[in-house]
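Encode chain A's predicted structure.
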Amino acid sequence: MGVKGKKKYESKLKDNKIDRLFEAILKLENQEDCYRFFEDLCTIAELKSLAQRLQVAEMLNENLSYNSIAEESGASTATISRVKKCLNYGADGYKLVINKLSEER
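Encoded structure for chain A:
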């Protein structure tokens, strides 16, 4: 069992290379470190796409309509649907991050 009686999450993607990537990310100490690392790691389009998906997840979590999400975020309805599917049937990663971000506000 993991923290607070919850079963430990076992990813289907788990491998040594991904473990190493996540270890590297966890070593970043602040937003500037993140910008420096992710600007080198990702293309601008990849980084903007990741940020957009998080924005869409937050908006879906607020029960906003697809039309308002598409208009405000610029995301396609396909992207919105994909993120919604992850929110409903995924690994709860979006929910985990959204909850942590809302605790800081």
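The CA atoms of residues 24 and 37 lie 9 Å apart.
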